[in-house]
Specification:
The chain is α+β, with helices and mostly antiparallel strands and 215 residues long. The chain is elongated. Strand 3 and strand 4 form a beta hairpin. The protein has six helices and four strands; from the N terminus they run ααββαββααα. It has a two-stranded antiparallel ribbon. The chain has a domain of 122 residues. It starts with 7 loop residues before the first helix and ends in a 10-residue tail after the last helix. It binds zinc ion. The site of zinc ion has 8 residues, from strand 2 and helix 3.
């Protein structure tokens, strides 16, 4: 995705930031309010209204649904408060779980340049990594489940953002194969004798697993 390019009043404000006082982020008055709004509006479009970490979508734009997310936390590295490549949008749940947890493979000095390589991060970096290389999302009968595809960024993102929370909905099922068979046999039982081909096709489409996850 494309990082934000600050202009006008936003650019002036970002230019005046001292790189230390990250508390200004939460001020409820002044230029930061409009700036946060610009950031949210930009990344909502870039991320196609989906969370950077769980990739679930919400067609809402207000701050009650979306947090502007500092990939490297602003509390540990205030220098990157307005670094466009350190910004993304996350849903409340992912952001709350991720909080101030470290995401760097090796710690870096406070005044270091932003590490612009995927290898510097333990989690899926929304700007540098392809999500589907690391996590697969399955949807079955409106239930969602995330599966890490590797023990590196896939597993780490799954843990740090508590993506297991989606899988609780599957507790009644042993696994996906069981779930598909059960869904299918339940359908056969309740399927009316006069079901049309379209009815059946509509049902079969709910057994579709793949979800487009990449920005
Ligand atoms: Zn999320």
């Amino acid at each position: 995705m494309k990082p934000i390019n600050f202009d006008g009043v936003d650019a002036n404000y970002v230019g005046s930031y001292n790189g230390i006082d990250h508390e200004i982020w939460n001020h409820t008055k002044g230029p930061i309010v409009a700036l946060r709004h610009s950031i949210r509006a930009h990344y909502l479009i870039e991320q196609k209204f989906r969370c950077a970490y769980c990739r679930m979508g919400k067609k809402e734009s207000h701050g009650l649904s979306w947090d502007v997310e500092h990939i490297i936390p602003k509390s540990t590295h205030p220098k990157y408060l307005f670094e466009p490549e350190n910004l993304a949008l996350a849903c409340k749940e992912c952001n709350l779980s991720k909080l101030n947890k470290g995401v760097l493979v090796k710690n870096i000095a406070d005044n270091a340049e932003y590490p612009r390589v995927p290898g510097a991060f333990t989690i899926i970096h929304p700007h540098y990594d392809t999500y589907s290389d690391h996590i697969e999302i399955a949807v079955l009968a409106q239930k969602v489940s995330h599966r890490p595809k590797n023990r590196g960024k896939g597993k780490e993102t799954f843990i740090i953002c508590d993506l297991v929370r989606f899988s609780y909905a599957f507790a009644e099922w042993e696994d996906f194969n069981y779930a598909i068979v059960k869904e299918f046999s339940d359908y056969i039982k309740r399927c009316p004798g006069d079901a049309t081909k379209d009815d059946i096709v509509r049902f079969m489409s709910t057994l579709n697993f793949t979800v487009e996850t990449d920005f």
